[in-house]
C-alpha cells in the first residue's frame, strides 16, 4: 500500500473535496443558504451555520487549507485583518503581553500599538532578525510572539528557528503571518510554529477579486481561535469560499512564476542607476539572503525599491508605468505598485515610518505573472 502524501500541486487541486463528490460536481458547490436542517442537537460550534464556518463549502475549503499548510485544522475569515486580530485577541487572553516583530504590515502595527493597549494588553516590539536579549523583554503576562515570514514591505527575514525555540522555551504561542511566503515557499508549522495566519486576499486567491483571511495550525489553539471568530462574526461567505478554493488550485503554478519574475526584476532594478536600493531576499545583497535560501523554496513576488529622489519622484515614476498598475494590495497575477508611506503605512506618523525604514521614496512592487521581458521594459522606460 502506498502511503506517500500527494504532492503540493495535487493537494492544491484535490484536497478537501468531499467523497463522494456532491451530485458528481468536480468543484465544491456554493451552498447559498443561511439555514440548514439540523438532524440532532449537538455542541454549539458544530451547528451547520455560515457564521460558524460549518457549511459544506466552508468545511471543504478548510480541509484544503489544512492539507496545504500541514495543519491539524484551518479555516477562512472575512479578511486578513480578521484573521490577525482574532488570533491575537484569543492568544493574549486577559491583559496579556505580546512580543511583536518590528517592521510588520501597517495594519498589524497600528492594531498592536493603538488598539491592543486600549483593550488592556501590552506590546513590546523587537528585532526578530537578530537573536539574543529577547529574554529581557519577557514579563509575567507574556503570552505570545508574533512575526512575519517576510516583513511588509522591507522583506526582512526573521530568524525563524530561533523564534520557535525561544517561544517553546518560555511557553509562548508562536504565531506567524506567512502571507508573503505562502505554503508553496514556506510551511512554518513544520518548523514548529503553532499558528499561521494569511491574508488570503493576496497570493492564496491570487486574482484580486475577494477579501479573505486564513488561520491554520495545531488543533487546540486553532480551535480556540475559530470559536472566538464564531462569536466575533468575522466569517467568510460561501461565494468567497468558492472563489478562494478555486484560486488555491493554481497556487503552486502561480508562485513559481511570481518567484522567477520577481528575482529577474530585482536583478534589473538593482543594477539601474536611478535606484538607490532593492530589498528582496533572493538577492545576495539582501542581509538575510543566506537565511532565506535555507528556509524558503522561493522568495515570492514582493520587492521594496528605494528610488533616488523623494516622494514626488516616486509618485511620478509610478504614473509613468503602463503595465504595472498603481494600487493597494499584492499577490495578484497582475503587477501592482504602491508607495507604502502614502498607503499601507499612511496611518503611522512620519517619525514612526522613519524608525521602520520606510522612506517617502520607497515603492512596494508586487510582481505579477506577466512576461518578464515586458515588465522589465515597462520599468526601464519609466525610470528613463
Question: What would your notes on this structure say?
Answer:
By secondary structure, the chain is an alpha/beta fold. The chain folds into 2 domains: 8-248, 3-Layer(aba) Sandwich (Aspartate Aminotransferase, domain 2); 252-383, Aspartate Aminotransferase, domain 1 (Alpha-Beta Complex). The chain has helices spanning 8-14, 56-69, 80-92, 106-118, 160-169, 182-185, 188-191, 219-232, 238-248, 251-270, 289-295, 311-320, 350-356, 372-383, and strands at residues 73-77, 97-101, 122-126, 142-148, 173-177, 195-199, 213-217, 275-279, 302-307, 325-326, 336-338, 362-366. The strands form 2 sheets. A 7-stranded mixed sheet has the order 1-7-6-5-4-2-3. Helix 10 runs parallel beside helix 14. The model has no long low-confidence stretch (mean pLDDT 95).
List keywords for this structure.
5-stranded mixed sheet, 2 domains, Aspartate Aminotransferase, domain 1, 15% strand, 384 residues, Aspartate Aminotransferase, domain 2, alpha/beta, globular, 38% helix
Brief synopsis:
By secondary structure, the protein is of the alpha/beta class. 38% of the residues lie in helices and 15% in strands. It has a 7-stranded mixed β-sheet with strand order 1-7-6-5-4-2-3.
Gyration radius, in Å: 21 Å
Number of strands: 12
CATH class of the largest domain: Alpha Beta
Secondary-structure element pattern, one letter each:
HHEHEHEEHEHHEEHHHEHEHEEHEH
As for the number of domains, it is: 2
Helix content: 25-40%
Tell me the CATH topology of the largest domain: Aspartate Aminotransferase, domain 2
Unreliable stretches:
none
- CATH H-level homologous superfamily name of the largest domain: Type I PLP-dependent aspartate aminotransferase-like (Major domain)
| Overall form | globular
What's the arrangement of strands in the largest beta sheet?
A: 1-7-6-5-4-2-3
Amount of beta strand: 15-25%
Q: Decide which structural class fits the backbone.
A: alpha/beta
Amino acid at each position: 500500500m502506498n502511503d506517500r502524501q500527494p504532492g503540493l500541486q495535487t493537494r492544491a487541486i484535490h484536497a478537501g473535496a468531499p467523497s463522494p463528490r456532491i451530485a458528481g460536481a468536480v468543484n465544491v458547490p456554493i451552498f447559498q443558504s443561511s439555514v440548514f436542517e439540523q438532524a440532532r442537537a449537538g455542541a454549539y460550534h458544530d451547528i451547520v451555520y455560515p457564521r460558524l464556518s460549518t457549511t459544506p463549502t466552508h468545511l471543504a475549503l478548510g480541509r484544503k487549507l489544512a492539507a496545504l499548510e500541514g495543519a491539524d485544522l484551518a479555516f477562512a475569515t472575512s479578511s486578513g485583518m480578521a484573521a490577525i486580530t482574532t488570533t491575537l485577541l484569543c492568544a493574549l487572553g486577559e491583559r496579556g503581553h505580546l512580543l511583536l516583530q518590528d517592521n510588520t504590515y501597517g495594519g498589524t502595527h497600528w492594531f498592536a500599538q493603538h488598539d491592543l493597549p486600549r483593550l488592556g494588553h501590552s506590546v513590546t516590539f523587537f528585532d526578530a532578525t537578530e537573536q539574543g536579549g529577547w529574554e529581557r523583554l519577557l514579563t509575567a503576562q507574556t503570552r505570545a510572539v508574533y512575526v512575519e515570514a517576510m516583513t511588509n514591505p522591507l522583506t526582512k527575514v526573521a530568524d525563524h528557528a530561533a523564534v520557535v525555540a525561544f517561544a517553546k522555551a518560555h511557553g509562548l504561542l508562536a504565531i506567524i503571518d506567512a502571507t508573503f511566503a505562502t505554503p508553496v515557499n514556506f510551511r512554518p508549522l513544520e518548523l514548529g510554529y503553532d499558528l499561521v495566519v494569511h491574508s488570503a486576499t493576496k497570493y492564496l486567491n491570487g486574482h484580486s477579486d475577494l477579501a479573505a483571511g486564513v488561520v491554520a495550525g495545531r488543533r487546540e489553539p486553532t480551535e480556540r481561535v475559530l470559536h472566538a471568530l464564531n462569536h466575533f462574526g468575522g466569517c467568510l461567505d460561501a461565494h468567497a469560499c468558492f472563489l478562494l478554493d478555486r484560486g488555491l488550485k493554481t497556487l503552486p503554478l502561480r508562485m513559481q512564476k511570481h518567484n522567477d519574475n520577481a528575482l529577474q526584476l530585482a536583478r534589473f532594478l538593482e543594477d539601474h542607476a536611478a535606484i538607490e536600493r532593492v530589498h528582496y531576499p533572493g538577492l545576495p545583497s539582501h542581509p538575510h539572503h543566506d537565511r532565506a535560501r535555507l528556509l524558503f523554496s522561493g522568495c515570492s513576488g514582493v520587492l521594496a525599491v528605494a528610488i533616488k529622489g523623494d516622494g514626488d519622484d516616486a509618485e511620478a515614476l509610478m504614473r509613468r508605468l503602463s503595465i504595472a498598475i498603481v494600487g493597494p494590495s499584492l499577490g495578484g497575477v497582475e503587477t501592482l505598485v504602491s508607495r507604502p508611506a502614502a498607503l499601507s503605512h499612511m496611518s503611522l506618523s512620519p517619525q514612526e515610518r522613519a524608525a521602520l525604514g520606510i522612506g517617502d521614496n520607497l515603492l512596494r512592487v508586487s510582481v505579477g505573472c506577466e512576461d518578464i521581458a515586458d515588465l522589465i521594459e515597462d520599468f526601464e522606460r519609466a525610470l528613463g
